[in-house]
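I am writing to request your help with a piece of structural work I have in hand. A protein sequence and the structure tokens that stand for its backbone fold form the material at issue. Please examine both parts with care and let me know of anything in them that strikes you as inconsistent. The record follows directly beneath this note.
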Amino acid sequence: MLLTEKIEEVLTPLATDANMDIVQVNYTKKTLQILLEKKDGTSPTIDECEELSRAFSATLDVEDLIKEKYFLEVGSAGMDRPLTKLADFEKFTGRDIKVELKMPRNLDDERKRFKGKINHTENQTIFLDTFLDEKNQTISFDFDNVAKAKLLITDELIKEILKNNKQINKKGK
């Protein structure tokens, strides 16, 4: 198991207790970065990130998974959040994304970078509506072949977020 996977496994119960999901764990150059999202899909506040950062730090000190000194950064995954799990692609069906593959998807096409709208997922395959070779088409690739993927910030996304935040604020009153 990778170090980042072990860290996510250890910290997930704390995030769950705070009604959050861990979107991504990165550990590079002595910095441990943890990106969060609330269970309802909204972004956590700075105060919520600070609170979880303290809880994560205490747990990581006890677990002693990282032997060297490191910096802990806990923050929101943001509007252009990474898609790190197959469930993310399912959750964001219909949304615009940017994806980079590890390997070209077939021998006839050397491209590894695509932008498009998630059409659907089926088993471990992701179907993406995109514009290639001067025409609209649906391409597919295996989830295991995804190197990086993230949501694209679009006017449609911003409108949806504002609408969701407005509904959440009404419920809170």
In short: The mean pLDDT is 91. The radius of gyration is 18 Å. The helical segments are 3-17, 46-63, 86-91, 155-172. The CA atoms of residues 90 and 147 lie 17 Å apart.
